[in-house]
């Protein structure tokens, strides 16, 4: 294996996503998480057309005691650059930012990001159970006695937005309705049957104001993304999708330290990503946003600048975020309908790349004149709005 080419003294190397893939997703009862990692990795490498010997960087989180070490060994990789950053759902956008920086600086040639989980199958088989909190040590010890589950924290934030800006239950339900409509065009989505606002509102209450359909599905699945330096792009099988700008931010660990329940850390990570990309929200053709709960989509749209603070409810009405809407959002159906095996952030990058390549089939977003989209943003949120990573991607 040759050493990584060094960045130019005049500018850093450009970095492209050159391979993406999903492992089997949805209901997968006969695979281990390691097997899903391997399946996704093989498919992403095949998608790129590059030889695995080019890969000298590896990033993984969520599996085993030493995720990048154990998973890399399982995949037969011996990376010289690794990342195990774990900040919840934002993990993969943050990892992509770190990987892009490493490749641009000449510290790696190509970095493989891989995730896999059998969250649904494990519950069914009794290998895991639900948990009330992430732990009872450190700052969280002051909240755990009050029984705050993760969903309860999101529900509290949603209620604050409703109180402060007049956001309605019907507007939150519109997010779930549009996600399901988008999923209907995705043959890989776990749930594709249409739902109505009334059906969302009539569902069993999980954490006020969230009924069942306000919440993400629980699925199995995995995916992988391969980033590479610009000099490898001529050898790839498909057109590159360039990493134009990234941003990351953390805002709080405990709810008592969160200054404003109506502002997510995407307000900072998004601003940084757009500034570094040299573009603005108005330039973006589609957005892939972490949606463990409907409120996440709504408030992240505000914080990324697609609408003013407090106007997210009105923005998501009337199909505006559907496949043929003003700003298509979560075009695969998102975590609310397509799949959600756990830390879903990597799936956002896969879908954004597929859309920019024109590989999304019936759910393909088109611009005026039947042109392919040129710019996409993927924004992941972690914990209970504790962290955010945002990546701006482009075809040019």
From TrEMBL:
One Gene Ontology molecular-function label: acyltransferase activity, transferring groups other than amino-acyl groups
Superkingdom, taxonomy of origin: Bacteria
InterPro entries, per database record: Thiolase (IPR002155), Thiolase-like (IPR016039), Thiolase_C_2 (IPR055140)
Pfam families given in the database record: Thiolase_C_1
Signal peptide bounds: none
Thiolase C-terminal domain mapped to chain residues: 247-395
Protein name as catalogued: Acetyl-CoA acetyltransferase
Organism: Streptomyces californicus
Phylogenetic placement of the source organism: Bacteria, Bacillati, Actinomycetota, Actinomycetes, Kitasatosporales
